[in-house]
Write a structure and sequence with these properties.
With 270 residues, this protein is an alpha/beta fold. The chain has two domains: 3-96 and 218-269, Rossmann fold, CATH 3.40.50; 99-215, Rossmann fold, CATH 3.40.50. The chain has twelve helices and twelve strands. α10 (201-208) links the parallel β9 and β10 (213-215). α1 packs across α11 (218-231), α5 (96-104) crosses α7 (135-141) and α9 packs parallel to α10 (201-208). The radius of gyration is 18 Å and the shape is globular. Its EC number is 5.1.1.3. Substrate binds at residues 7-8, 39-40, 71-72, 195-196. Keywords: Cell shape, Cell wall biogenesis/degradation, Isomerase, Peptidoglycan synthesis. GO terms for molecular function: glutamate racemase activity.
Length: 270
């Protein structure tokens, strides 16, 4: 039995780590499309094609349920996939909704009309593709009214993290926060809309100030997945996991992943 976790690169390992801690008895298969990372600078059709190929590979590995632990894929491809591509016996879920539910303090499956919420000014930090999709704003509008969202495209951050250049990543984060503050001087909350960004959460928090609540996705997705599998235990596929697949160089990706998670990770070719 296994659940698939997909990301364009290594950022989804932050989600994998959280769900493994929350669901230690559920095996997972992780797929990193490192050969084509980052997705954040690609157009929607390209992201869709790459994402569907990756999801099919995870289905082949026995994962009937796949989590898109990639905000760009969730923003640019998920709705299209769910509407016209995913077969009835499979499920593909994204990472936006658990975060928005936490922000708006709504329970999973609460389909009541959108209402006013406590937070009025929200900063969204995400990849250029996620920002241009406006998927976050669309999902938020289903649940809340009167929320001002200012989005900041954080070019270069994912590349720096993937290359292990954390000094450059920190400099870029601080520059992007400064740019956001010029547009929204006093955000009340900040959304880290990329699964790479939790690796820089302390830098985001320091740059934004302690009065800004920073929402990161990994633990929220883990809780949402645990709830989903309690209600749909049949969606744990027949894969044997755990496993790590990559379209990149397995040796190089394994080394970088081991640094990220601080435990031995061994990828094989997808």
């Amino acid at each position: 039995m296994a659940v698939g976790i997909f990301d364009s690169g290594l950022g989804g390992l932050t989600v994998l780590d959280a769900v493994q801690k929350r669901l230690p008895d559920v095996p997972f298969v992780y797929y990193g499309d490192n050969a084509h990372a980052p997705y954040g600078v690609r157009d929607a059709d390209d992201v869709y094609d790459l994402t569907t190929k990756a999801v099919e590979r995870l289905w082949d590995a026995g994962c009937d349920l796949v989590i898109l632990a990639c905000n760009t894929a969730s923003a640019a491809a998920l709705r299209r996939m769910q509407e016209s591509w995913v077969p009835r016996d499979k499920r593909v879920l994204g990472v936006f909704v658990p975060l928005i539910e936490a922000l708006t303090e709504r329970q999973w499956g609460d389909n009541s009309p959108p209402r006013e919420v406590a937070v009025k000014h929200v900063a969204l930090f995400a990849t250029p593709a996620t920002v241009s999709s406006r998927a976050f704003q669309r999902e938020l509008a289903f649940r809340a009214i009167g929320v001002d969202v200012e989005a900041q495209a954080c070019g270069g951050v994912v590349d720096a993290i993937e290359e292990g250049d954390m000094i450059l990543a920190e400099a870029l984060v601080r520059s992007h926060v400064d740019a956001l503050r010029r547009k929204m001087p006093k955000p009340e909350a900040a959304i880290l809309g990329c699964t790479h960004y939790p690796l820089m959460q302390d830098v985001f928090q320091d740059a934004l100030g302690e009065d800004v609540q920073v929402y990161s996705q990994a633990n929220l997705v883990a809780e949402s997945l645990a709830d989903y599998l309690t209600r749909h235990p049949n969606m744990i596929g027949d894969g044997t996991g755990p496993g790590f697949l990559t379209t990149g160089d397995p040796k190089r990706v394994s080394s970088r992943a081991t640094q990220f998670l601080r435990r031995e990770i061994s990828f094989t070719a997808a």
